[in-house]
What does this fold into?
Amino acid sequence: MLEGELEICVNGRAAAAPSGAVIHVPKGTVHSFAAVGAAPVRMLFLYTPAGMERMFIDIGAPAKPDMPAPPNNSEDVAKLLTVASKYHFEVVERGEA
It folds into this structure.
């Protein structure tokens, strides 16, 4: 976690992830996360083996320097659902993680 704070839920167990935290989620693990607090969240994701990062290229827009990411909208969610299976990624309802 670079900035802000998340609540992360892994296999039904919730935990706080404040700025500076390192979170490891093994491949295939059902998980979710949500920002908590008023501060914006910035995270750095590392995927090994490589490949999953291409999903973000497929669904996202290039970042703008010194600008926060815009909030997700229904078009973003639709793009994610369209490419999820290509990346062996499953979207679950909040609370299922």
Observations:
- Helices lie at 53-59, 74-83.
